[in-house]
From TrEMBL:
The keyword Protein biosynthesis does not apply. InterPro entries: GH131_N. This is Glycoside hydrolase 131 catalytic N-terminal domain-containing protein. Keywords: Signal. Residues 19-242 form the Glycoside hydrolase 131 catalytic N-terminal domain. Residues 1-17 form the signal peptide. The keyword Signal applies. It comes from Cadophora malorum.
């Protein structure tokens, strides 16, 4: 039986792609996160940037929270509100990969999908920093001064699109730590990832434990805080080798 070109490409990608860290959500994710501490660093994520409420107040998983096109078992609902403050007046709920893998070396791809609903939607009056590195060499942003979902690299906006409710945005940061560059890949829904911007030369600095999956919302004087915001994540993993373009993700 002859294989289609699409199938052959998918098989080649599977052979040459290697998952370095798997942050996709399962029934074990929340229990592992809930028990995480500096003295008990187990599970796929570090969990310390959040408010003083229970873990369930800020993160939860469900099959209804994932991109239907992904092969993940579950998706993540991540919430920020006026209790989600960590060392400042910023609203923050963030997860950090817990791994010793070389996710900050060579050429790697940081994958995630993000979506919001009309209920508890992000407030565009505030700047949101989304899925960012500590040095902010690459990140997503939403809100003030621009209501679009934007990709930043080297402290400049390089790409943007409407952030419409119920639309999944599939994203990969293609980071070449050796060359000091970042390339941006994007699609929506079930469509495969395509290169939409870059490569951009920038200072690719990371210690391997400073990529923040989640949201940091900056305060803004004179603007009402509003209510809680829910952000949804799916398809979170980091790979080396060839980019996996399928939203279904690797096995």
């Amino acid at each position: 039986m002859l294989l289609s070109l699409f199938t052959l490409v998918a098989l080649v990608n599977a052979v040459f792609a290697a998952v370095l860290w798997d942050g996709r959500f399962t029934a074990d994710t929340i229990p592992a996160i809930s028990s995480w501490s500096w003295s008990n660093q187990k599970g796929p994520y570090q969990w310390y940037i959040h408010g003083n409420g229970a873990t369930s107040k800020y993160i939860s998983t469900s099959a209804s929270y994932k991109n239907p096109a992904s092969n993940d078992a579950l998706g993540l609902r991540l919430t920020i509100d006026n209790t989600a403050k960590w060392n400042s007046d910023m609203w923050r709920t963030e997860l950090i990969p817990q791994t010793t893998a070389a996710i900050n070396k060579g050429k790697v791809f940081y994958h995630f999908s993000v979506m919001h609903k009309a209920t508890n939607a992000p407030n565009p009056a505030f700047e949101h920093q989304v899925c960012f590195f500590e040095s902010h060499f690459t990140e997503m942003k939403f809100g003030w001064i621009n209501p679009m979902l934007r990709w930043y690299a080297g402290s400049q906006s390089r790409w943007n699109t409407n952030f419409t409710a119920d639309v999944w945005h599939n994203i990969a940061f293609g980071i070449d730590f050796g060359a000091g560059s970042v390339t941006f890949y994007h699609s929506t829904g079930a469509d495969p990832l395509v290169q939409t911007a870059g490569p951009v030369s920038t200072s690719t600095s990371s210690n391997g434990a400073d990529w923040h999956l989640g949201v940091l919302r900056l305060p803004k004087s004179g603007v009402s805080d509003g209510g809680a915001e829910d952000w949804f994540y799916s398809g979170v993993y980091i790979e080396s080798g060839t980019l996996t373009t399928s939203v279904g993700g690797p096995a």
